[in-house]
């Protein structure tokens, strides 16, 4: 695959691209799409996957011969590809929107074998802690940050986290907040008739950090008259099997319906949102893993759902407390149960928060974030 790089070419190198799903994969795809729409030459180097849908993207995609994990084998395979094609990248902008390829570049910079003209990075939150807490990675991350031309973050929380642990980034940081997917659309529910229950919905992989068990426990602690009004729905793939087993065991003891939908395609997920009444995702810090922003909160708000969430990480920048949802400090179960009770018992409040959320969710757009991050390339285009 031959490319003639120029000053306005952006090579986006990632392990997190379609058909992968999740917040980082969404961010990566949308930033690439928005940059191409602004007139930049964009080429995406992505993890191996079936190529049948790649032609639908408005830029070329090179599927690298690697799975896209953080293990050493994957890092070495990416290193080989970068070295082989280094001449194409010397005068170009290389954009690493997530930690996978950053780890590879940290290894290569020790040998000065890969030095693009401009290096642009995006940090999401968890990788900041992982890089800093690893004594072998920490100095390599500092060197990478020093070399970077620009660094973006999705939230003020991640910006502060990065500056606390890597102050070298101070003069380079730009805030590029997430937004709704460019193909986002509200699809009316196919369900007919009156609902007999108030549906509380969580969308996210089944993982302790996403807090499904915390939400379930909060709902179990409701007074009987409120428990009799609800159903709890969980949508998401299994990230940790033992956690799903724990969830299912807890669900079996509930005196209200609990449904596990598994992973659902985006084009079907809208109908699930439309059938729900309350969105609850009570994320918590889990080891080195934090909630840097939370695009799923915007998606729920865009469907008119009031949100119940923990005030951790960057969640407060995705959920406006008292305007689009209710935020509760983590590890305060009684307050969390009270927040759910407040929404379950007050339909007017649910509608008011949900209505505000529809506008709130659309306040950011990918074009603005891409324009901010690649302003220098756009000016030279």
From TrEMBL:
CDD domains: GT4_PimA-like (cd03801). Pfam families: Glyco_transf_4, Glycos_transf_1. GO terms for molecular function: hexosyltransferase activity. SUPFAM superfamilies: UDP-Glycosyltransferase/glycogen phosphorylase. Residues 194-360 form the Glycosyl transferase family domain. Residues 22-174 form the Glycosyltransferase subfamily 4-like N-terminal domain. It comes from the Bacteria. InterPro entries: Glyco_trans_1 (IPR001296), Glyco_trans_4-like_N (IPR028098), Glycosyltransferase_grp1 (IPR050194). This is Glycosyltransferase family 4 protein. It comes from Synoicihabitans lomoniglobus. The lineage of its organism: Bacteria, Pseudomonadati, Verrucomicrobiota, Opitutia, Opitutales.
């Amino acid at each position: 695959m031959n490319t003639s790089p120029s000053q306005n070419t952006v090579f986006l190198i990632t392990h997190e691209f379609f058909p992968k799903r999740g917040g980082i994969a969404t961010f990566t795809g949308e930033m690439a799409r928005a940059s191409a729409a602004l007139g930049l030459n964009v080429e995406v180097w992505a993890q191996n996957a079936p190529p049948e849908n790649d032609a639908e993207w408005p830029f070329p995609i090179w599927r690298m011969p690697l799975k896209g994990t953080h293990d050493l084998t994957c890092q070495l395979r990416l290193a080989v590809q970068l070295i082989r094609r280094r001449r194409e990248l010397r005068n170009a902008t290389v954009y690493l929107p997530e930690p996978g390829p950053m780890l590879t570049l940290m290894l290569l910079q020790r040998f000065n074998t890969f030095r693009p003209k401009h290096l642009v990075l995006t940090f999401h939150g968890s990788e900041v802690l992982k890089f800093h807490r690893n004594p072998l990675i920490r100095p390599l991350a500092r060197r990478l940050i020093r070399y970077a031309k620009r660094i973006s973050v999705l939230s003020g929380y991640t910006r502060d986290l990065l500056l606390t642990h890597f102050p070298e980034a101070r003069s380079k940081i730009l805030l590029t907040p997430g937004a709704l997917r460019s193909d986002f659309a509200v699809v009316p529910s196919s369900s007919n008739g009156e609902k007999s229950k108030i549906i509380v919905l969580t969308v996210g992989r089944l993982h302790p950090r996403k807090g499904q068990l915390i939400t379930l426990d909060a709902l179990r602690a409701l007074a009987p008259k409120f428990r009799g009004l609800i159903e709890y729905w969980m949508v998401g793939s299994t990230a940790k099997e033992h956690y799903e087993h724990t969830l299912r065991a807890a669900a079996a003891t509930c005196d209200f319906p609990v449904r596990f939908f598994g992973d659902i395609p985006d084009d079907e997920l809208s109908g699930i949102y439309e059938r729900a009444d309350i969105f609850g995702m009570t994320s918590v810090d889990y080891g080195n893993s934090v909630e840097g922003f939370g695009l799923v909160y915007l998606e729920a708000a865009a469907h008119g759902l009031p949100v119940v969430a923990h005030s951790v990480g960057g969640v407060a920048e995705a959920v406006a407390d008292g305007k689009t949802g209710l935020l509760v400090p983590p590890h305060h179960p009684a307050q969390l149960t009270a927040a759910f009770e407040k929404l379950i018992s007050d339909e007017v409040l649910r509608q008011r928060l949900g209505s505000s959320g529809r506008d709130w969710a659309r306040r950011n757009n990918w074009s603005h974030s891409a324009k901010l991050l690649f302003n220098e390339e756009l000016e030279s285009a």
